[in-house]
Structures are given as structure tokens and as C-alpha cells.
Amino acid sequence: MTALVSQARVPLADAGEAIATLCAHFLDHDIPVDQWPGKGIIAFDVGTGQLEAAPDGLTLRAEAGDALGLAVVKFMLASHLQELPSASTAPIVWTGDGCGEATLPSLREVRVRRVADLTPRMRRVTFHGADLARYDAHDMHVHLLIPPEGQPPVWPVPGIDGIPVWPQGEAAPALRSYTLRRIDVAAGEIDIDFALHEDAGPGASFARRARPGDVAGLLGPGGRSAGPADWTLLVGDETALPAIGRILERLPAQAEGIAVIEVGDAVDELPLVHPEGVALRWLHRGNAPAGSTTLLQDALRAIPIPDDRTVFAWSGTEFETFKALRAHWRKTCKLDRTQHLAVAYWRRGAAEDAKDDT
User: Fold this and answer.
1) Cβ(342)–Cβ(327) under 8 Å?
2) d(Cα 91, Cα 93) in Å, to the nearest integer?
3) Kindly report the CA angle at 340 between 63 and 196, in degrees rounded to 5?
4) 231-354 under CATH 3.40.50.80, yes or no
5) Distance CA 212, CA 169 (A)
6) ∠ CA(345), CA(349), CA(353), 5° rounding?
7) Domain ranges of the chain
């Protein structure tokens, strides 16, 4: 496959320092990095990003096998670079493949086809759209674009810096990340399960009012699943239920392991298809607010990690729980970066605008 390539030259006073900071950032997020003085190569799942110091600044190079992958690499490099104080106002103009496009390669417009309640606090919305084949992959998540209620959809467009330009004002859509629970490419259908939070923001509000024909947008997919292993450990609260359900369905029949899931009470449990060798453990927090207990941490500390088989541990939880689980796996269980993935799905006390939903 012929690679697509884009490049950008960014004027910076200290490109070497920027490269070192960015490489450390990507490494901290478990993205493979090769680094030398004044140069770094980042191996994203969809392509490769290269950072190299030049006499007049920093050279960025993005390479991927298709237009979507190229756009993702350009976005990752540019958006994280602009987070650095030294580069926040530096101009980034990409040249080469994928430049000058009028629409985002990952954007799809979809419409609600049907709605079903799975539990009193979980609702499944089935969307219908065209050209959905790329979502039928091992990527876990999509970004859902939600137009304001009563407003026609207005979607983001590509920017010259590789960062989408978003509509402003009353027409601006809300952006939330969700797990792809089911996809049927032939039928043009995608299922997304929504946790119906009491303090409903744009995502939960959209799910509560969803009716056939309602319009939304999709960007993605992205997000890592559990890696291959003989023994798999899955941990999460109800916001991770769709992801855990999808991972369980894709495990091989001979897989072994444990899935530990915290919900409010028994009515929030869902029937999950899983290999016979993977045990399900449900934890009920009762009237305690979500994210306020140590049920998951306590349960995890009591589960021994096998040392005679390959292991992968995955979790999707509230932010403080995420930090505790990741520290436990890294420091106590001595799992390396290839053996675990902990994700913060939400943060207690934060507005919905500042976090992902399910």
C-alpha cells in the first residue's frame, strides 16, 4: 500500500525541548516512541508521526496508509504540540497528501433508527447510516456529535493545521465519546448504549429524547481494546459496561479470566455473553454515589494475577479509581505497558462538558 505523507514546518525557539516533552507525553499514554536527541518517531495505531529539530524550528511529518489515518496522525501531532506554552501560537500549515479537503474523512452523518431501554439507567440507541465499514474494527470508541435540540446539524471542517474547525454559537454540536456496542455493516446500523445520568448533560439528554429520524454525527473510530492474552481481567463501572460487553464477546472461546463490574444494584446488571472460563463478578454500591466507593479497588487487590500465563488487564472507571487501578497494576502487580490499559471514562464532580460519557 502506498503511504500518504504530509509535512509541516513550525517556527519554534527550542524544538529539541518540544520534542522531548511530546515524546514523554505520548509514552505516558502508552503510545510507542523511539527517541534520539532532536528527533522522535511516534507509532500510532493508524500511522506514524515524526518530530525533528531544524535550524529554524520543528519539522512534523505524518504518514499513514489511508486518508483517515493520515488525518488522525496530523491531528495528534498538531493538537498536542499546541498544548505546549512555547508552541501555543505557532502557526502549523500542512502540505502534501490530504490537504485542501472540504470535509473530515472520518465524519459520518447518521440518524436514529430505534431506541430500547436495557435497564432503568441504560438506554440503547440504534443509528442508521451509509459507508460504516471502517467502524467494524477492533477500535472501541466513536465521537458522537450531538446538534443542539431544535437546531439543524452543522459539522466541523478540516483546518490547515490538521485540527478540525468547529462551528461556533448556537449551532455548535456537543462532542461525546461512546463505545461502539454493536455494528452491522450490511444493515448500516450502529448501537450505542447511554448511561442515563441523573445530572444529564448533552449525551444523556440526547438519549432520553431520542426519536427515529433524529440526526447525529460520528467521528472515529479509535481507542484500544484489551490485548491478546491467556488470562484477561476486565474492570469497570456502568459507564464501561458497553466496552466490557464488547470485549467479552470478542474473546476466544478458550479464554480465561475475570470481569468485575460495579453498578448501583441488581436491576442495573446486564446479561453479557462471555467465554465459560471468564467469571463475572457484580458489585453493588447501593445508595452510594457513583465514583464514591472503593469497591473496585478492594476487589482488585484480592485477585491474584497469574504468573504462569500471558495476562492483560483492562479498566474503564471514574478518574480517581483509574489512578488507583493503574498504580496497583504497575507498582504492585508489576505489569508492563503491554499488559494493561486503564482508562478514565469520567470524573466525579466534573461537568459533563469536561468528560466522556460511556
Assistant:
1) no
2) 7
3) 90
4) yes
5) 26
6) 60
7) 4-96, 108-222, 231-354
Pick the CATH number of 108-222 from 2.40.30.10, 3.40.50.800, 3.40.50.2020, 2.60.40.290: 2.40.30.10
Contact 129, 190 (CB under 8 A): yes
Largest CA distance in the chain: 63
CA 123 to CA 114: how far, in whole Å?
11
**Quick one: DSSP state of residue 170?**
G
Burial 200-229 (b: 16+ CB within 10 A, else e): bbbbbbbbeebeeebbbbbbbbbbebbeeb
Q: What is the pLDDT of residue 200?
A: 65
- Condensed to tens digits (0 to 9), the pLDDT of residues 132-158 reads 988 887 677 899 999 999 889 999 999
pLDDT by residue (tens digit) across 300-319?
A: 999 999 999 999 999 999 99
Distance CA 179, CA 240 (A): 8
Q: Between vectors from CA 70 to CA 103 and to CA 152, what angle results, nearest 5°?
A: 25
82's grid cell: 499546541
| Cα(296)–Cα(335) distance, integer angstroms | 18
C-alpha 327/C-alpha 321 separation (Å) is: 10
Q: Give CA angle at 293 (197, 355), nearest 5°.
A: 40
Distance separating alpha carbons of residues 2 and 6, to the nearest angstrom:
13
Contact 247, 255 (CB under 8 A): no
Q: Is 66 exposed, middle or buried (0-12, 13-18, 19+ CB in 10 A)?
A: middle
What is the CA 307 to chain-centroid distance, rounded? 29
Report the alpha-carbon distance of residue 59 to residue 77 in Å, rounded: 11
Class in CATH terms, 4-96: alpha beta
Where are the extended beta strands (E) located within the chain? 4-10, 33-36, 39-43, 47-54, 57-64, 95-96, 108-119, 122-128, 141-146, 174-179, 182-184, 189-195, 215-222, 231-237, 256-263, 277-284, 311-318, 340-346
Q: What mean pLDDT, rounded, does the chain reach?
A: 91
What's the pTM value of the predicted model, to 2 decimals?
0.81
CA-CA distance, 145 to 269, in Å (whole number)? 28
